[in-house]
Amino acid sequence: MTTLLEVSGVSVTFDGFRAINNLSIQIAEPELRAVIGPNGAGKTTFMDIVTGKTSPDEGRVIWGEKNISLLGMSESAIARAGIGRKFQKPTVFEEQTVRENLAMALKNKRGPFDVLLYRRSTEGAARIAELAEEIGLADDLPRRAGNLSHGQKQWLEIGMLLAQDPRLLLVDEPAAGMTPAEREHTTDILKRAAQTRAVVVIEHDMEFVRRLGCKVTVLHEGSVLAEGSLDHVTQNREVIDVYLGR
Amino acid sequence: MSKPDMTPRRRFLAENPSVMWFLGLLGLFTLGVTVLAEGFGLALLSTSMVKILGMTLCLCLIAVAMDVVWGYCGILSLGHFAFFGLGGYAIGMWLMYARTEGIVVDSLAGAPIPPTQEEINDAIATQIFGVVGSNELPALWAFADSLFMQLLFVVLVPGLLALIFGWLAFRSRVTGVYLSILTQAMTLALSLYLFQNDTGLRGNNGLSGLQNIPGLLHLPQSTLALWFFWASAAALGLGYLFFAWLISGKFGSVIRGIRDNESRVRFLGYHVESYKLVVFTLTAVVSGLAGALYYPQAGIINPAEIAPIASIYLAVWVAIGGRGRLYGAVIGAAVVSLASSWFTGGGAPDVNLGFYTINWTDWWLVLLGLGFVAVTLFFPRGIGGLFDMLVRKP
Ligand SMILES: Nc1ncnc2c1ncn2[C@@H]1O[C@H](COP(=O)(O)OP(=O)(O)OP(=O)(O)O)[C@@H](O)[C@H]1O
Ligand SMILES: [Mg+2]
């Protein structure tokens, strides 16, 4: 296990409000990590920083064995470096079919001329079929993504994430709006992905986190309150006060 | 190979029946006009009508380009007519220069002493630029004697302008209404610049006599009109095919993604700005080509053609025709521009209400405005959207 992502001493202020306060987190490869914390703790903002959506006021975000700084890199360059993201509110391309959504995410060259001359290949089609199978949308490939249910959109977005074949998956509340059976399936997908990659999952549902069975980081007011196994952090006095005890 | 694998081209046409339909109808239309045209036989269509139809095809081509940049990529450019005009100017310079050269050489041929090259050049310059009080050929016209060079400029000038403008605008992530305003500013600035007498393009006189094609002066206009009509039809057919191919595959998927959720496309690793730049520049080049075919049929180009309102009309055509479908753009451009020349050309009879007479030359714009509002409110998918109802997708 080597460190893949190192966030250290990061702070972000929105209009005078400190959303992230001297945050430090390290993610190894491979690793499965759950991030929990009350609403507004800064969980999503943490992902925004890593993916280049928000730039921090101070701190460092270091990536990979070459210790590259992600700060100052564009969103698309960070994505190409191997960081994929699923958003809290499912964002798929509703006007396009499930197949088109997956094809767009598929790991291929991203330049305009590469894409223009891209020819649909049998491997690509096979990979899409395989992914669709995994996310339970095998029969829905020709459907418009906008016609999917909320849970299916979540899965499609997870599928797009896997299609990118990233080294680090940032998954924001993947189980929201899912039935218990669907949640279980989602846990399996994430655990399988984490066998070879780094996966960071934000989730509120404690049952879901327990099933992930991994190291947990508790965020509160923009910094790490506790870190360790789920049992360890749930016994922490402060964690009970700010999060569990509500 | 054991599996019967379709070639990419056949697959493309098989998967896009609307492209086949369009090309078939365009072919039939071209055939029909040819048979009816004055220059060919039946002479049921006057030469000026053939020219109007040929020009309409050029407008359809720029509308298709506009649909790609706006309807598919979501960039509401209100400046694409500037590229159209620049294409017209580039070819117009050669047309005017070469024809003037012919006239000058002819008229000096009778002189007792054969004229020097310098005298010929001076005479050409005086002929062309006398109207703006100059007798020198501006540096801009250095290559005006070369058809090849000016054809190159038809592509390069709009292409480079779009590339530089787009690079500056997209790089600073100017989007939405701000980008539209910026493109309006571009076309306004260009038009104002060209209106000046000392810019080397004859100010508000523009370039004229473009219907006379050097080297083909022995041919009647009725024949030339038909040739240009065919060229315009071919350009529209090829342009349509090219853009239909461009938007059909993964590239089309990415640009529609950019239209619907730009930042999501970024997080998938695509450099959105490059895609916008490619689409903006390609459509600008096609617009320039359309202009280069249009103005020899119109006979004259002047800076008013590039006025900001022209590009706004273009967006209105595409909206009325139905954006996000290429045939919609063609329908919109054809219907609205033909209706416009019918109403403003005195084709529509005045309506006498007793207390007031509706003169369509003045009231056409009101009608167009009402039509635009009606389409926006009641048929947001435009005229082309009516076809979609016939061929519903699951
Ligand atoms: N772009 C922004 N501008 C202003 N404030 C913001 C912005 N983004 C986040 N915030 C604020 O920063 C704080 C942290 O937000 P964040 O979305 O990271 O919380 P979270 O832990 O993901 O919460 P939740 O569990 O509700 O998703 C919140 O108070 C939020 O209002
Ligand atoms: Mg959040």
Keywords:
heterodimer, A: 246 residues, alpha/beta, Rossmann fold, 2 domains, 6-stranded mixed sheet, 4-stranded antiparallel sheet, 27% strand, globular, B: 394 residues, mainly alpha, two-stranded antiparallel sheet, two-stranded antiparallel ribbon, 15 helices, disordered N terminus, binds adenosine-5'-triphosphate, binds magnesium ion
Spatial separation of the terminal alpha carbons of chain A: 36 Å
Q: From the helix content, strand content and strand pairing of chain B, which structural class follows?
A: mainly alpha
Strand order of the largest sheet of chain B: 1-2
Give the domain tally of chain B. 1
Keywords (chain B): Cell membrane, Membrane, Transmembrane, Transmembrane helix
GO molecular function, one term (chain B): branched-chain amino acid transmembrane transporter activity
Organism (chain B): Sediminimonas qiaohouensis
InterPro entries (chain B): ABC_transp_permease, ABC_transptr_urea_perm_UrtC, LivM-like
SSE inventory with pairings:
The complex is a heterodimer of chains A (246) and B (394).
Chain A: E1 2-14, E2 17-29, E3 31-36, H1 43-50, E4 58-63, E5 68-69, H2 75-81, E6 83-86, H3 98-105, H4 112-116, H5 122-134, H6 150-163, E7 168-172, H7 180-193, E8 198-202, H8 206-212, E9 215-220, E10 223-228, H9 230-234, H10 237-244
Parallel strand pairs in A: 3-8, 3-9, 6-7, 7-8
Antiparallel strand pairs in A: 1-2, 1-4, 4-5, 9-10
Chain B: H1 8-15, H2 17-36, H3 47-72, H4 80-109, H5 117-129, H6 147-171, H7 176-195, E1 207-208, H8 221-248, H9 250-260, H10 262-267, H11 272-298, E2 300-301, H12 308-321, H13 326-344, E3 351-352, E4 357-358, H14 360-378, H15 382-390
Antiparallel strand pairs in B: 1-2, 3-4
Bound molecules: adenosine-5'-triphosphate and magnesium ion (MG).
Adenosine-5'-triphosphate binds next to helix 1 of chain A.
